[in-house]
């Protein structure tokens, strides 16, 4: 009987490896085997690649299914060659697309055809959103089977034995410098909580508070107090990417139990509107006005809706569904 394997990247920091590791933890509960890939630039060398990949795939047998988590942040050629090696075992291959570097970084956009070539080697693609599926097809993907991810799970427990309350507060977990938040919210009526390091050379208004880096449990606990979670960027290239990707920030705020503030172009807009998870706006000015005008009763209705998905995110519901749907579709 054929078995199912899933790759797991080691040696890279940040959300990239957290997402892969958490996916593998769920996969193991479902009986999958882990294929460990160490981030290793020597894989660019053909001789080293052949030698090391032979070791990485030593546990594979003919007919086995492999779910490859992409990217592994070396080169798309290494990923394409890796899939070619897996293909020699004559089993099914799915690629779980976490991020697409040419869409993330403007300097890499000319590499997109190489990633399309990679994705076309799969029998099935796991993609963040319907928008991403449509976009990849428009760029030349010919794979016929897709599974839509929609949301990242946040399987983290925190103190949540009370209901978040309405506060004229907007929280942003991310780089203020990169995403341009504080310079575009000018209202002193709103408390702005920024989970980023405080700039040393800037005069900070009294309503803006920097918290620096905090661990996930502390972040969720503080967010859960109330207010709104902001998913935003003023960087137009990144905003374009947000039409397609699955944002970890979206899941973090939902797991914390607070309603979202998002730009209307975000990939999961329909989910947010259909499920009453937050407010969809065109500008940060509009967001501030919506927050200031909201009643406590209206806020409570958002919190009730968000609480339903918060539990699912904590229980790895979306990851389990993606993996089970993938096996079914293959």
TrEMBL record:
- Answer whether the UniProt record assigns the keyword ATP-binding to this protein: no
Q: Where in this chain does the record put each Glucosyltransferase 3-like C-terminal domain?
A: 170-325
Please give one Gene Ontology molecular function term for this protein: UDP-glucosyltransferase activity
**Top EC class for this record:** transferase
Respond yes or no to whether keyword Glycosyltransferase is given for this record: yes
Q: In which pathway does it act?
A: Protein modification; protein glycosylation
Quote the InterPro entries the UniProt record gives. Gtf3 (IPR043676), Gtf3_C (IPR058592), Gtf3_N (IPR058591)
> Keywords in UniProt for this one?
Glycosyltransferase, Nucleotide-binding, Transferase
Which ranges carry the Glucosyltransferase 3-like N-terminal domain? 4-151
Give the protein's function: Required for polymorphic O-glycosylation of the serine-rich repeat protein in this bacteria. Catalyzes the second step in glycosylation by transferring a sugar from a UDP-activated sugar to the terminal GlcNAc moiety of the 3-O-(N-acetyl-alpha-D-glucosaminyl)-L-seryl-[protein] resulting from the first glycosylation step.
Q: Which HAMAP family match?
A: Gtf3 (MF_00841)
Report quaternary structure and partners.
Homotetramer; a dimer of dimers.
The UniProt entry's sequence similarity note says: Belongs to the Gtf3 glucosyltransferase family.
| UniProt note: domains | Dimerizes via the C-terminus; dimerization is required for tetramer formation. Binds protein substrate via an exposed loop in the N-terminus.
Identify this protein by name. Glucosyltransferase 3
Organism from which the protein derives: Ligilactobacillus salivarius
């Amino acid at each position: 009987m054929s078995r199912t394997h899933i790759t797991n990247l080691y040696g890279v920091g940040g959300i990239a490896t957290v997402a892969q590791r958490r996916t593998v933890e769920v996969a193991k509960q479902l009986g999958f085997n882990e294929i460990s890939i160490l981030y290793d630039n020597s894989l660019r060398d053909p001789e080293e690649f052949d030698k090391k990949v032979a070791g990485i795939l030593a546990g594979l047998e003919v007919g086995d299914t492999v779910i490859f988590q992409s990217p592994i942040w070396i080169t798309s050629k290494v990923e394409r060659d890796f899939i070619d090696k897996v293909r020699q075992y004559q089993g099914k291959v799915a690629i779980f697309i976490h991020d697409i570097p040419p869409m993330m970084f403007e300097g890499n956009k000319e590499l997109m055809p190489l990633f399309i070539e990679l994705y076309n080697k799969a029998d099935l693609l796991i993609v963040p959103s319907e928008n991403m599926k449509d976009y990849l097809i428009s760029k030349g993907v010919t794979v016929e089977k897709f599974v839509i991810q929609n949301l990242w799970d946040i399987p983290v427990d925190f103190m949540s034995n009370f209901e978040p309350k309405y506060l004229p507060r907007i929280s942003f977990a991310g780089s203020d410098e990169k995403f341009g938040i504080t310079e575009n919210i000018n209202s002193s009526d709103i408390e702005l909580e920024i989970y980023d390091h405080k700039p040393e050379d800037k005069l900070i208004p009294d309503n803006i508070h920097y918290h620096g880096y905090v661990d996930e449990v502390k972040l969720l606990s503080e967010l859960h107090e109330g207010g709104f979670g902001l998913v935003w960027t003023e960087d137009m290239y990144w905003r374009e990417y947000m039409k397609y990707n699955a944002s970890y920030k979206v899941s973090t705020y939902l797991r914390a139990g607070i309603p979202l503030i998002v730009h209307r172009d975000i990939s999961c807009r329909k989910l947010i509107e259909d499920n009453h998870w937050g407010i969809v706006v065109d500008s940060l000015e509009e967001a501030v006005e919506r927050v200031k005008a909201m009643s406590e009763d209206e806020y409570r209705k958002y919190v009730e809706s968000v609480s339903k998905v918060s539990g699912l995110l904590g229980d790895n519901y979306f990851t389990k569904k993606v993996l089970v749907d993938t096996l079914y579709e293959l």
